[in-house]
Specification:
This protein has about 400 residues and is of the alpha/beta class. The chain has two domains: about 1-70 and about 365-410, Urease, subunit C, domain 1; about 75-360, TIM Barrel. About 35% of the residues lie in helices and about 20% in strands. The strands form two sheets. Strands 1, 2, 3, 4, 5, 14, 15 and 16 form an eight-stranded mixed beta sheet that branches. Helix 7 (about 190-210) links the parallel strand 8 (about 175-180) and strand 9 (about 215-220). Helix 5 packs across helix 6 (about 155-165) and helix 7 (about 190-210) packs parallel to helix 8. The protein binds N-(iminomethyl)-L-glutamic acid and fe (iii) ion. Fe (iii) ion (FE) binds near residues 77, 79, 247, 320 and 322.
């Protein structure tokens, strides 16, 4: 057991509601605070003085200089296991080339599939760990990671096994998701329906047997999988015992409705969600996950986060870090930019990258600093928490704690 502090401010995020709009006045800020950690759990969060009298003789881990503490962040949607690079797609898109022209000249998701298939497990693991460490340095200690650049039994399993190996080599929590239904691969003989059937018959049983993922995702879009076939697929997947998440309403509306109907944990993207579907999402427990990194990468509009919150939805914000549409990977920059364009309060943004994002992944043990929670928290060398979003991602974390343990800077 130890007492960590004192901190200029501790932003606990406790008491904030799981859904709907939040005001900054609702944020609990403990001045000159401390955090008592017992093993991997938080035992108390209070003023430093109170904690010293509540826990006489407790070992103290003293902070250097002025620091603030906040729950560690959660990135609930990434595709960071991939081979190759799509810088040329980005340049072509900015030079005015269309999706089709980019695909025809060897770009698009299919090019990442080829690079990922050609990469050795060792190469994939090394680059994945580099990206995980980049996210940890930003203060993110829970990371969802999708497959989806393998698209056949061998390569989807290769991706998911790589993620499993990475879990053995990092302190962060990795949440693997099978996204075999990202796109029908060009070398598959048969239509979409046959490919979705192939996933059910040949990929998911192996995923289950090796315990590689408990979640399944699908990209529902004109250029990927159609609404009806997707719904049938998701219902079968659910019956197999998987949790569901959906790439929904990215360019055309309608699929967030399917996500709600099948009881998905989250519907992600939502840049094109129609007004009536905002209402539908808001009345469900399906988390609405905005991916501003994809809007910035593609030059598309942002998810209507303000409207979703006003309607009462559970809003999360995630990076969507992938080699194509969202190559940046800096969730803090993206969340801050989204806040500026969508007029989100600091409380709403912080909730969206902590306990609300955790809920999308099925966790209720993290994302708030209070007794009983997992001791994942981060500190910044500043005296005011508002500086985190104000600097739009350029204020660096000072210390990362995972399970109550200070991470060694040299290893991340
Ligand atoms: O979330 N929309 C579909 N899938 C990814 C893009 C993947 C890629 O371009 O490689 C996304 O934006
Ligand atoms: Fe995505």
């Amino acid at each position: 057991m130890k007492l960590i502090g004192p901190f200029k401010q501790i932003i606990t995020l406790s008491q904030l509601s799981l859904r709907g709009k939040l005001y900054d006045e609702q944020l609990e800020i403990i001045s000159e605070g401390g955090i008592v950690v017992d093993q991997d759990k938080i035992l108390g969060v209070d003023s430093f003085e109170n904690l010293i009298s509540r826990f006489p003789g407790i070992e103290i881990e003293k902070t250097e200089g002025e620091q603030i503490a906040i729950p560690a962040f959660v990135d609930a949607h990434t595709h960071i296991c991939f081979g190759g690079n799509r810088a040329n797609d980005f340049a072509m898109r900015n030079a005015g080339k269309t999706y089709l022209e980019i695909a025809e000249s060897g770009g698009g998701i299919w090019s990442s599939v080829q690079h990922t298939r050609n990469a050795s497990e060792q190469e994939l693991l090394e680059t994945l760990l580099e990206r995980i460490n980049f996210l940890i340095r930003l203060g993110i200690t829970t990371i969802e990671i999708k497959s989806g650049y393998g698209l056949d039994v061998e390569n989807e399993l290769k991706m998911l096994r790589t993620i499993k190996k990475a879990q053995g080599l990092t302190d962060a929590t990795l949440v693997p998701t099978c996204l075999a239904a990202h796109l029908k691969p060009r070398d598959f003989e048969g239509g979409n329906k046959e490919y979705l059937e192939y996933i059910i018959q040949h990929i998911l049983p192996e995923v289950k047997k090796e315990e590689l993922a408990k979640r399944v995702d699908i990209f529902i879009e004109k250029s990927a999988f159609q609404p009806e076939e997707s719904k049938a697929f998701l219902n079968t997947v659910k019956d197999l015992g998987f949790e569901i998440t959906v790439h929904a309403d990215q360019f055309t509306s309608g699929s967030s409705r399917i996500a709600v109907e099948v009881g998905a944990k989250s519907a992600d993207h939502l840049e094109a969600t129609a007004e009536e579907d905002i209402e539908y999402l808001a009345q469900s427990d399906t988390v609405a996950t905005a991916l501003p990194g994809a809007s910035l990468g593609l030059g598309e509009k942002f998810t209507p986060a303000r409207k979703l919150l006003d309607a009462g939805a559970i809003l999360a914000i995630a990076s969507d870090w992938n080699p194509g549409s969202a190559p940046m990977g800096n969730l803090i920059t993206q969340a801050s930019v989204l806040a500026t364009y969508e007029k989100l309060t600091t409380a709403e943004v912080l909730a969206a990258i902590t306990f609300r994002a955790a809920f999308a992944l099925g966790f209720n043990d993290r994302g708030r600093l209070q007794e009983g929670m997992k001791a994942d928290f981060i500190t910044f060398n500043t005296n005011n928490f508002q500086n985190i979003l104000y600097h739009q991602g350029s204020l660096k974390t000072h210390t990362i704690y995972i399970n109550g343990k200070k991470l060694n800077n040299e290893t991340i």
